Amino acid sequence: MSDANKQAVQRYYREIWNQGNLALIDELFTDDYVNSDPATPGNDVHGRDGLRGLQASYKAAFPDLTFTIQEQMAEGDTVVSRWTAQGTQAGPLL
Protein backbone atom coordinates (compact mmCIF):
# COMPACT_ATOMS: atom_id res chain seq x y z
CA MET A 1 0.00 0.00 0.00
CA SER A 2 2.91 2.36 0.61
CA ASP A 3 3.75 2.66 -3.09
CA ALA A 4 0.13 3.38 -4.02
CA ASN A 5 -0.04 6.06 -1.31
CA LYS A 6 3.20 7.64 -2.52
CA GLN A 7 1.80 7.73 -6.05
CA ALA A 8 -1.39 9.39 -4.80
CA VAL A 9 0.65 12.12 -3.08
CA GLN A 10 2.76 12.58 -6.20
CA ARG A 11 -0.40 12.96 -8.27
CA TYR A 12 -1.73 15.50 -5.75
CA TYR A 13 1.22 17.82 -6.27
CA ARG A 14 1.74 17.15 -9.99
CA GLU A 15 -1.84 17.15 -11.20
CA ILE A 16 -3.79 19.33 -8.76
CA TRP A 17 -1.18 21.96 -7.96
CA ASN A 18 1.13 21.99 -10.97
CA GLN A 19 -1.39 21.20 -13.72
CA GLY A 20 -4.58 22.58 -12.17
CA ASN A 21 -6.58 19.34 -12.52
CA LEU A 22 -9.13 20.09 -9.81
CA ALA A 23 -11.31 17.14 -10.86
CA LEU A 24 -8.71 14.89 -9.23
CA ILE A 25 -9.74 16.28 -5.83
CA ASP A 26 -12.93 14.19 -6.04
CA GLU A 27 -10.85 11.05 -6.55
CA LEU A 28 -8.19 11.63 -3.88
CA PHE A 29 -10.13 13.38 -1.08
CA THR A 30 -13.26 12.81 0.97
CA ASP A 31 -15.91 15.37 1.90
CA ASP A 32 -14.73 15.27 5.53
CA TYR A 33 -11.11 16.14 4.62
CA VAL A 34 -9.50 18.74 6.91
CA ASN A 35 -6.26 20.56 6.11
CA SER A 36 -4.62 22.14 9.17
CA ASP A 37 -1.55 23.48 7.39
CA PRO A 38 0.43 25.94 9.54
CA ALA A 39 0.86 28.08 6.40
CA THR A 40 -2.81 29.04 6.78
CA PRO A 41 -3.07 29.60 10.55
CA GLY A 42 -6.60 29.86 11.82
CA ASN A 43 -7.90 28.98 8.39
CA ASP A 44 -8.42 25.22 8.41
CA VAL A 45 -9.62 23.99 5.04
CA HIS A 46 -12.63 21.67 5.13
CA GLY A 47 -13.72 19.25 2.45
CA ARG A 48 -13.20 19.06 -1.27
CA ASP A 49 -14.62 22.51 -1.94
CA GLY A 50 -12.34 24.01 0.70
CA LEU A 51 -9.32 22.44 -1.00
CA ARG A 52 -10.48 23.79 -4.37
CA GLY A 53 -10.72 27.25 -2.82
CA LEU A 54 -7.27 26.97 -1.27
CA GLN A 55 -5.72 25.91 -4.58
CA ALA A 56 -7.53 28.75 -6.38
CA SER A 57 -6.31 31.37 -3.88
CA TYR A 58 -2.68 30.23 -4.17
CA LYS A 59 -2.86 30.04 -7.98
CA ALA A 60 -4.39 33.54 -8.10
CA ALA A 61 -1.47 34.86 -6.04
CA PHE A 62 1.18 32.70 -7.75
CA PRO A 63 -0.07 31.78 -11.27
CA ASP A 64 3.12 29.87 -12.09
CA LEU A 65 3.28 28.03 -8.74
CA THR A 66 5.05 24.68 -9.09
CA PHE A 67 5.73 22.04 -6.45
CA THR A 68 8.63 19.61 -6.73
CA ILE A 69 8.92 16.58 -4.46
CA GLN A 70 12.55 16.34 -3.37
CA GLU A 71 12.26 13.23 -1.22
CA GLN A 72 9.48 10.91 -0.18
CA MET A 73 9.14 8.13 2.39
CA ALA A 74 6.22 5.87 3.14
CA GLU A 75 5.31 3.24 5.67
CA GLY A 76 1.88 1.70 5.87
CA ASP A 77 -0.68 4.40 5.18
CA THR A 78 1.64 7.30 6.10
CA VAL A 79 3.52 9.29 3.45
CA VAL A 80 6.04 12.02 4.23
CA SER A 81 7.20 14.32 1.44
CA ARG A 82 9.91 16.96 1.41
CA TRP A 83 9.07 19.42 -1.31
CA THR A 84 9.92 22.83 -2.64
CA ALA A 85 7.56 25.34 -4.20
CA GLN A 86 8.48 28.02 -6.66
CA GLY A 87 6.38 30.80 -8.15
CA THR A 88 6.12 34.49 -8.90
CA GLN A 89 3.75 36.45 -6.71
CA ALA A 90 1.34 38.37 -8.92
CA GLY A 91 -1.46 39.09 -6.45
CA PRO A 92 -2.46 39.06 -2.78
CA LEU A 93 -2.47 35.84 -0.83
CA LEU A 94 -5.18 34.99 1.73
Overall structural class, as computed from helix and strand content, comes to alpha+beta
Which spans have pLDDT < 50 for at least 5 consecutive residues? none
- The helix content, as a percent range, equals 25-40%
Total beta strands: 4
Biggest beta-sheet profile: 2 strands, antiparallel
Average pLDDT, all residues: 93
Order of helices and strands: HHEEHEE
Biggest sheet, spatial arrangement of strands: 1-2
Helix tally? Answer: 3
**What is Rg?**
13 Å
CA-to-CA gap between the ends?
Answer: 35 Å
Strand content: 15-25%
Shape: globular
Question: How is this structure best described in words?
Answer:
It is a single chain. This protein is α+β, with helices and mostly antiparallel strands and 94 residues long. Helix content is 39%, strand content 24%. The protein has three helices and four strands, in the order ααββαββ. The chain has helices spanning 2-18, 24-28, 47-61, and strands at residues 34-35, 45-46, 66-75, 78-86. The protein has a two-stranded antiparallel ribbon. A two-stranded antiparallel ribbon has the order 3-4. The longest helix has 17 residues, at 2-18. The radius of gyration is 13 Å and the shape is globular.
